[in-house]
Amino acid sequence: MSFVSLDQGTDGVRVRLARADGTEETAEAAYVVGCDGAHSAVRRALGIAFEGDAFPYPFMLGDVRLDWPAGSALERGHALRAIVLHDDAPPDLFVAVPLPEHDRYRVSMMAEADAEDEAADGVAHGLQTDRLGVPLAALQAVAGRIMASPPVLSDLRWSSRFRISMRLAARYRDSRVFIAGDATHIHPPTGGQGMNTGIQDAYNLAWKLALVLAGRADAALLDTYEAERRPVARDVIARTTEESVNFGRPRTPPHRLADTQLLVTYRGRAGLADHGEAAPEDAPRAGDRAPDAHGLHRRGVGFPLRLFDLTRGTEHVLLVAAEPDPATLAALEADAAALRAIGLPLRLVAVAPASAFASVEGAPASVAPMPFGVTLVHDAEGAFAAAYRTTPGAAFLVRPDGYLAFTARPYERAALEAALAAIAAR
Fold it and tell me: Do β-strands 59-67 and 80-84 pair in parallel, antiparallel, or remain unpaired?
């Protein structure tokens, strides 16, 4: 089934789809999300500009066996990068990345440009599957040209040419139709950023669409998708392009933690708020990715938990650093019931400090009363307090996509209710 066209109305979208046998059918949906890659037909149907450019030269890939000269074999699991730099041209390179088989590698290198490299839609990106693969001799020639003692390439199982572009969609939405993933951003593969960025696009949009479709949030919440995700893609494109252009040249080492995308933040965006006292400088704030914490203990569970075990799911999760005394837990129990009545799917997790059970040897958290509607865990190793730089009374609202929507020092229900109303865009 392939996309043909779409037509938007005030209440939904009609999409024409073509079957493999040439017949067509029409589907209707409240919203449509185009995740159809760099050459997105949905993006083109919406008339959304895909702004940017392409590297002027193509690349070659091949999965081969490498036989190394005596005494020069790579240690298993290690990659090879051979580069010859040029001042007025791109570097000549030969890269070999190990595959999970003895002596097999995926090799990559520059290729000569030709007229067939031009893409029909103007987006020169990805594997050129419409062309014949690269012959083994062409791959061997590059290794022999730039290496003093090149390996012998053999047993070519697969090869291709590919192009790399750096492009960003001018917008991510047209009324009831969205685009995500490679349909919105393409860039060099440096650091393996593409899949991570696309998955985060989808997760960011999915929980918002779910709330809107369930009638639990206003459609204005969907405006935050582009506001949050487009700047992230712009940064990824800039960083990966810079690293590719400077490949092999001495320069400041890249911040590898940035490539993990753990540092992505939406601070300052609509619907995010920090309440109460100023947090320590290195503490997470609204818009930051919620940190994980290990070593949490829960009554009746015979092994320690990670915080991510407790926040995983499709609901918002309120983390409250709380002393496990009966009065505090009773108040949180009442708050949990009241907050759920607001309409957003919400769970409440109370995290008791390490000191709360210091005198109860061998039975952490088991002596505290179990509140209804509240998950009580014990921060036995102090990892939660360290990661969130918190003391009893602070609270953190974690969105379904793992980012903080609200922080408070100290927690106040009225402030949280205002934050939840802002998330629902009501």
Answer: unpaired
